């Protein structure tokens, strides 16, 4: 199927090495891409370790964290092409399903099918800093912008807030009973939380940070995003859009009004199989997606067109990471 190519011209800043774009696949490879040419600039084989589940780029663009089966591999982004992992974190007993960095890159958090959430200290030789027992397989974890809390969702249908200073779970939500919650996204300003379950339904909460007479999480709306399995959702950095990925091969873009009304803006069509992951550019103008059709795509939000397609993986591309902001 031919790929549509947008007439949009990349801004000068996007043409240099300040754009870090990475994909991971069930073919046991991690690939770095030149975002605008579509050329693969580096391949990291992970054959001995297994499938690559999730990827995260450190805020300073120095490190790539890869969740590969039960372990976390840390790679130096600027290292030579043949360089292996600079560190390996071990401790999970099941597939690692989520991974994200602290805003200053001092630590990272992982969630796993083994029912635990772990915090890893990048400055310590022992690495494992903290362990939370979630009692059910964890599907997603995000770090609150205040860097003092985590929010997770799990296979038991729960959303939990974890206080890092008190080392406890302080809030729990069960919006759809025991229907597994697949993905969560927190607004960059901490104003709202969106969660999606395996049945394609999305739930939205306004987060109250100031008034003690109001609940911390105020439910504001819910809507059916897809009629098939929802794999990932993500709020744009400017909190004006929500992207939802699905087994129906599409990515849907929802516009968000100031009073949290979600309106279907456009449907990104082109992938041939499940869409597993997505990542926004820093200015919210572009979106990268990864799919079971072995490809990743770069979409222009304004037109909804594919700007570039990344070919090279031999099996499903299930995760991607993009960092084109200030390092």
TrEMBL record:
The residue intervals holding the WD repeats read: 89-130, 223-257, 268-309
Query: Can you tell which superkingdom this protein's organism belongs to?
Result: Eukaryota
Q: Give the main localization category.
A: cytoplasm
Cross-referenced InterPro entries: MLST8 (IPR037588), WD40/YVTN_repeat-like_dom_sf (IPR015943), WD40_PAC1 (IPR020472), WD40_repeat_CS (IPR019775), WD40_repeat_dom_sf (IPR036322), WD40_rpt (IPR001680)
Entry-linked Pfam families: WD40
Key word Amino-acid biosynthesis present:
no
* Keywords, comma-separated and alphabetical: Cytoplasm, Repeat, WD repeat
GO annotation (BP), single: regulation of actin cytoskeleton organization
Q: Which family does it belong to?
A: Belongs to the WD repeat LST8 family.
Q: Can you name this protein?
A: Protein LST8 homolog
Upper lineage: Eukaryota, Fungi, Dikarya, Basidiomycota, Agaricomycotina
Its gene? wat1
């Amino acid at each position: 199927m031919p790929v549509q190519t947008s007439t949009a011209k990349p801004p000068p800043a996007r043409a240099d090495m300040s754009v870090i774009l990475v994909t991971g696949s069930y073919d046991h490879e991690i690939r770095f891409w030149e975002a605008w040419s579509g050329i693969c600039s580096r391949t990291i084989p992970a054959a001995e370790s297994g499938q690559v589940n999730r990827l995260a780029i450190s805020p300073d663009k120095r490190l790539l964290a890869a969740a590969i089966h039960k372990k976390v591999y840390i790679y130096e982004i600027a290292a030579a092409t043949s360089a292996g992992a600079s560190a390996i974190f071990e401790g999970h007993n099941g597939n690692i399903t989520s991974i994200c960095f602290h805003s200053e890159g001092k630590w990272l958090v992982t969630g796993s099918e083994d029912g635990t959430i772990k915090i890893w200290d990048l400055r310590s030789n022992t690495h494992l800093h903290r362990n939370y027992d979630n009692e059910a397989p964890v599907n997603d974890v995000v770090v609150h912008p205040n860097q003092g809390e985590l929010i997770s969702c799990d296979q038991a249908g729960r959303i939990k807030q974890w206080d890092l200073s008190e080392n406890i779970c302080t809030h729990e939500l069960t919006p759809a009973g025991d229907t597994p919650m697949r993905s969560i996204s927190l607004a960059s300003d901490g104003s709202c939380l969106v969660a999606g379950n395996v049945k394609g339904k999305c739930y939205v909460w306004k987060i109250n940070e100031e008034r003690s007479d109001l609940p911390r999480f105020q439910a504001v709306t819910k809507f059916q995003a897809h009629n098939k399995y929802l794999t990932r959702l993500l709020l744009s950095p400017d909190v004006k859009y929500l992207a939802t990925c699905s087994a129906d091969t599409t990515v849907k873009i929802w516009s968000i009004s100031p009073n949290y009304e979600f309106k279907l803006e456009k449907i990104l069509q082109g992938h041939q199989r499940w869409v597993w992951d997505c990542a926004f550019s820093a200015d919210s103008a572009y979106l990268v997606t990864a799919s079971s059709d072995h490809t990743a795509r770069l979409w222009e939000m304004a037109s909804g067109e594919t700007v570039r397609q990344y070919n090279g993986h031999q099996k499903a591309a299930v995760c991607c990471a993009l960092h084109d902001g200030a390092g």
